[in-house]
Specification:
Elements lengths: L11 H7 L20 H4 L1 H19 L6 H15 L8 H13 L9 H24 L1 H7 L10 H5 L6 H8 L8 H17 L11 H4 L3 H7 L17 H6 L22 H18 L3 H9 L33 H23 L6 H23 L4 H17 L11 H4 L1
Helix pairs in contact: 4-16, 4-17, 5-9, 6-7, 6-9, 6-10, 7-14, 14-15, 16-17, 17-18
Bound molecules: zinc ion (ZN) (2 copies).
One zinc ion binds next to helix 6.
């Protein structure tokens, strides 16, 4: 079921404040879940503006950009892929929440009371901490979450590197809230909790003084993204770092952090980024003897194998030297600029599609979805300089022209429509 709230307006002031959870209960309390705006979708211009701002600030402060084009495109591509199911369905997190609320709720807190709002803020953040911790400690949940850790850089675009699978496990950790908190209040906070985590993915902010005691900050979250041994399985917080301090998973930033997976995936291809660990689990599952051991492959830590403790052995994590060379594209500057332009055109179609989901037929939505996926795959192939890249890109261009000709894509600039004709 689609969400009519997706059409509701968010002012520029609200747009800026929602990126930092600086919203008031009075402006973000809704009676029904249908009335809740799709804040995350409306955040796209703020994501892009802040990424550009970070590039400039990094250039001024450090004399170099905050990221690399190939890595930024791959992160943004994962962000787009992770949102595609919501073209057809309401978020699985919210759908399952509504089901539990409608069938099993014990009491109904008032949706318009500020205390409900603040309690939900705490409840969602607490649920996020445990979801996130399990996403690192349970291999099958890690299969989704590893996407977010697959960048070897750390900048605002890394925040957008999200998994398309994650929603299908995170709902479990929020379900106790559905016993007493109305879905409309939950649907607001689960979005703000995600949006808050955008700005902390940066190296241009060092230390925030006393705020570091309570809030999750860029410094704390840099540790979370590290593959240095001291960083592994630390700082799971969403908004408040207090949960890590309480449950013993806090670690302050000290030696320089090297980012990414302990075994980098080395790809720009969106499907491999999203699903490579599932493939690895599948292979390990069948290669591991014994029913209980197979069960453990799924539900113990990603580093586990028979004979090891639940979370594996820390001495098996490759030691970082600080000299690691991140996976980079060998494509020419001209080809990289081409991929950026194609990504920008795709993003305009993506935005236009989300803004008009109700007006578009299912077949148009499916065709546009295929075009978006093919574009992202082709960009990945071009950046990796794969031998088949030219064929995939030609197919993509043919698909574009066909969809345009059949009226499934509208011209972005009507004055240019004669060029396509
Ligand atoms: Zn994580
Ligand atoms: Zn992160």
């Amino acid at each position: 079921m689609k969400n009519p709230g997706a059409q509701q307006d968010v002012s520029v002031s609200q747009g800026v404040r929602m990126m930092f959870y600086l919203m008031k209960p009075s402006e973000t309390s809704f009676q029904t879940v249908e009335a809740v705006p799709d804040y995350v979708r409306k955040a796209t211009p703020f994501f892009i503006s802040l990424i550009l701002l970070e590039l400039v600030v990094s250039w001024i402060l450090k004399g170099k950009p905050s990221g690399r084009l190939d890595d930024i495109l791959t992160s943004m591509s994962a962000g787009v892929v992770s949102r595609l199911p919501s073209l057809f369905f309401r978020s699985f997190e919210v759908t399952s929440y509504i089901y539990i609320w409608e069938n099993y709720r014990l009491l109904e807190l008032p949706w318009d009371c500020p205390w409900t709002w603040y309690l939900t803020f705490l409840g969602v953040d607490f649920g996020y901490y445990w979801f996130h911790r399990m996403a690192h400690e349970v291999n099958i949940i890690w299969a989704g979450h590893q996407v977010h850790h697959s960048s070897e850089d750390y900048n605002l675009s890394t925040a957008l590197r999200q998994s398309v699978l994650q929603l299908y496990t995170s709902w479990i950790f929020y379900s106790p809230l559905a016993l007493f908190i109305p879905p409309s209040v939950f649907a607001v906070h689960v979005q703000f909790n995600l949006l808050y985590q955008f700005w902390i993915h940066t190296e241009v902010i060092n230390n925030l003084g006393p705020l570091e005691l309570i809030l999750n900050t860029p410094s704390h979250h840099r540790v979370h993204h590290g593959r240095n041994r001291y960083c592994i399985d630390k700082n799971y917080a969403g908004t408040l770092i207090i949960w890590d301090r309480i449950f013993g998973t806090f670690e302050a930033e000290n030696e320089r952090v090297t980012y990414g997976l302990t075994h980098p995936v080395n790809t720009f291809e969106p499907f491999k980024v999203q699903f490579h660990h599932l493939h690895y689990i599948w292979a390990t599952f069948w290669a591991t003897p014994g029913f209980f051991h197979k069960f453990s492959v799924l539900f113990k830590g990603p580093g586990w194998s028979p004979g090891k403790p639940r979370l594996g052995l820390s001495e098996e994590i490759p030691e970082v030297t600080g000299q690691e060379i991140p996976f980079s594209s060998s494509a020419s500057q001209l080809l990289k600029i081409y991929t950026v332009l194609q990504f920008a055109v795709m993003l305009a179609f993506y935005e236009e599609t989300f803004a008009n989901t109700d007006a578009l037929s299912q077949i148009t939505l499916l065709l546009r979805l295929s075009f978006i996926i093919l574009t992202l795959t082709s960009i990945g192939f071009l950046l990796e300089q794969r031998p088949t890249a030219a064929i995939v890109e030609t197919l993509r261009c043919l698909m574009f022209l066909t969809l345009y000709r059949l009226g499934h894509l509208k011209p972005l600039f009507p004055s240019l429509s004669s060029v396509f004709e």
